[in-house]
Structures are given as structure tokens and as C-alpha cells.
Write a structure and sequence with these properties.
Helices cover about 80% and strands about 0% of the residues. The longest helix is centred in the first third of the chain and has 29 residues.
């Protein structure tokens, strides 16, 4: 679930500001990595604190396993967005990173829906809706910034 949050927050972080303002690829990469990494650590801290305060016998993972999982998904999203930022022209690097967050969101929504017991058809439908909404946000931002 945290991966979904990472994608949404990354999309929001990359939506702030103007795509047409002068920036370097390093600026975009800094936003991608700082957002995903900081959010993963923040989420890990919040869940770890909750684990300390609430004794839930259904919890089957350690704080370290949780940290690895949180950082793992954040790194996967950040690497995917970074590859796009490096490969596309500077004019479209922020848009490319936003679209990557949108695609990752769609994939994660579908995966979580399927893992939560939804049928393949339902999971694909949820993924498609998430992808269309997120991609629309990314595209509208591109148009507004242009």
C-alpha cells in the first residue's frame, strides 16, 4: 500500500512548480529521490511507532522487514522515474517522471487489488482507472505549464 502513496505523492511533488521554468535533470532527480526516500522513511517511522503503541497479534513482520519493504518499493519507483528523466529531453523530464509515477500507480493498484482478492477483471479495471486519472493529472500539468 505504501507504494501507492509514494506514487501519488511523487506525482503531486512533480506537479508543483512549472515545467517550463529553467531546471536541470539533477533538480528533477532530487525531487524524485528526496520524495520517495523521505516518504518511505516517514511511513516506516509512523508504522513502527504504531507497532510500539498497539499490540496487534496479527502483525507478522519485524520493523526491519517493514523498512526493507518500504525502501524497496520507493527505490523501484525512483529508479523507474530516474531512467525516464535521463532518457527524455529536458523539456519533458518532469512530465516523464509524472507519467512514470502514474504508470507505477496503475501497476500497484492492480497488484494490490488482485492481492486483496479481486478478480483479474476487477483488478485491471481498478488499475486502468488509477492510471487514467493519474496520467490525466500529469498531462493537464504539461498543458498548463506549456
Amino acid at each position: 500500500m505504501m507504494g501507492i502513496t509514494v506514487c501519488i505523492v511523487l506525482l503531486a511533488a512533480l506537479t508543483a512548480g512549472s515545467d517550463s521554468d529553467p531546471h536541470s535533470r539533477l533538480d528533477v532527480l532530487a525531487i524524485v529521490w528526496a520524495t520517495t526516500f523521505a516518504l518511505a522513511l516517514t511511513h516506516w517511522f509512523a508504522v513502527s511507532l504504531s507497532m510500539t503503541l498497539v499490540n496487534d497479534p496479527s502483525v507478522r513482520y519485524t520493523r526491519f522487514e517493514l523498512l526493507v519493504a518500504q525502501l524497496g518499493i520507493a527505490v523501484i519507483v525512483a529508479i523507474a522515474a530516474s531512467i525516464v528523466v535521463v532518457l527524455v529531453s529536458r523539456t519533458y523530464d518532469r512530465f516523464g517522471a509524472r507519467m512514470t509515477a502514474a504508470v507505477c500507480l496503475g501497476v500497484l493498484v492492480g497488484t494490490e487489488a488482485r492481492g486483496g482478492g479481486r478478480s483479474v477483471k476487477q483488478a485491471v479495471a481498478y488499475a486502468a482507472v488509477a492510471l487514467v486519472i493519474a496520467a490525466s493529472i500529469a498531462y493537464v500539468k504539461l498543458i498548463v505549464s506549456g
